[in-house]
Amino acid sequence: MGHIVVEVMPKQEILDPQGKAVVGALHRLGHTAVTDVRQGKRFTLTVDGPVTEEHLAAARDAATTALSNPIIEDVVGVYELTGADAAQTAGVEA
């Protein structure tokens, strides 16, 4: 099984109330060096077999047509999950 990650973030000009709440909580916990937080979404897509260019192209299409709202969000990453992160993801599914 292969895994593809799609990362989506609010556009920079869009207010991020969740990010504001998180930065406020971090400050209350003493993490005052943090000045801003933007909270986004991460999708992990599983495909049969190894990830191919066709899988990545389909994931990019899904990212822009189904997984994000292009009016308020940007797709910031579509990539194959490899190494330790892929092993951990596979372990979680088992």
From TrEMBL:
Subcellular localization: Cytoplasm
An example molecular function term from Gene Ontology annotations: phosphoribosylformylglycinamidine synthase activity
Presence of the UniProt keyword Acyltransferase in the record: no
Keywords from the named record: ATP-binding, Cytoplasm, Ligase, Nucleotide-binding, Purine biosynthesis
This enzyme's EC code(s): 6.3.5.3
EC class (word): ligase
Record pathway: Purine metabolism; IMP biosynthesis via de novo pathway; 5-amino-1-(5-phospho-D-ribosyl)imidazole from N(2)-formyl-N(1)-(5-phospho-D-ribosyl)glycinamide: step 1/2
Catalytic reactions of this protein: N(2)-formyl-N(1)-(5-phospho-beta-D-ribosyl)glycinamide + L-glutamine + ATP + H2O = 2-formamido-N(1)-(5-O-phospho-beta-D-ribosyl)acetamidine + L-glutamate + ADP + phosphate + H(+)
Subunit structure comment from the entry: Part of the FGAM synthase complex composed of 1 PurL, 1 PurQ and 2 PurS subunits.
Assigned protein family: Belongs to the PurS family.
Role: Part of the phosphoribosylformylglycinamidine synthase complex involved in the purines biosynthetic pathway. Catalyzes the ATP-dependent conversion of formylglycinamide ribonucleotide (FGAR) and glutamine to yield formylglycinamidine ribonucleotide (FGAM) and glutamate. The FGAM synthase complex is composed of three subunits. PurQ produces an ammonia molecule by converting glutamine to glutamate. PurL transfers the ammonia molecule to FGAR to form FGAM in an ATP-dependent manner.
The protein's name: Phosphoribosylformylglycinamidine synthase subunit PurS
Organism of derivation: Georgenia deserti
